[in-house]
Amino acid sequence: MYKRADKEKYEKLIQESPLFSLDKKAEPVAFRNARLKMIENLYLYLLSINKEKYEPYGCEITETANRCIDTYDSARGEFLNFFNYAWKKEFKYTKNRERLAEKYRGLHVSENTVRAVRKYIKCAEKIEKKDKPEELYSKLAEAMELPVKTIRELAELVDIQVETGNSISDEDEEELWGHIANNVNIERDFEEKEGAENILNKVDKVFQGLRAKQQPIISDVITTKLWMCLEEPEQRYSFISKEVAEEWNKKGTLPTQRDLAKKYGRDEASISRTVKTFLQKLKKEMEQER
């Protein structure tokens, strides 16, 4: 069962870890102990969010934690933000592999094939707008020398959607931020800028519809959450916080929710409620195309 107190407890332990202040070579024992404790706290942090969902993936969580510890650069912001982003990508990848294994009963389908199908479908939809899905799948099957059934099932697998629902829980909030960030990056992996822009345009549209007094808070939150996956030209969006951008450029850090609560003279729960209201509107906007 989700408990906000548990989540905040592990967030605090992770943020206050001495790990990255230790010299790996000069203090090997202390570094190793701090590393093990960090991995444990990251695991418990995810379990505090959703034990049933994440407990079966202890190995993947440990591998992701180790990889993040080895590659973390403090200039890129808080470690927990870095880990959360990496874990969302890893979890999404792992779940997709499980779905592939289930659909094909162990038959291996390469990642390149999955990517190719997704990319070709996007391109073909732009060129052959008159085609119905089945006609498009037939053409792709012939071009890629794969069965139509395989193309159809792969098309379903690589179709990225946000879960439906009218409310936003704490876990849903992290999932939706992860969905936006991951998809912006995924679109760039396929050199499909239009898809990334479509997602960010929706964020901007909903942001512009907010009341004036809500915009500064939401602007700071959106920028903090998505800064790592934004590119320089995308600072044209109205939701970008100039203050957060300046802090990053000067100090290389991003504000925490606690920092934002202090900045606006509100408690963290109040900030969280404001963010959830925004995400409910954003989720509705994103689902309209489905």
UniProtKB/TrEMBL annotation:
Q: Which domain of life is it from?
A: Bacteria
Protein name listed in UniProt = Uncharacterized protein
The organism named in the record is Fusicatenibacter saccharivorans
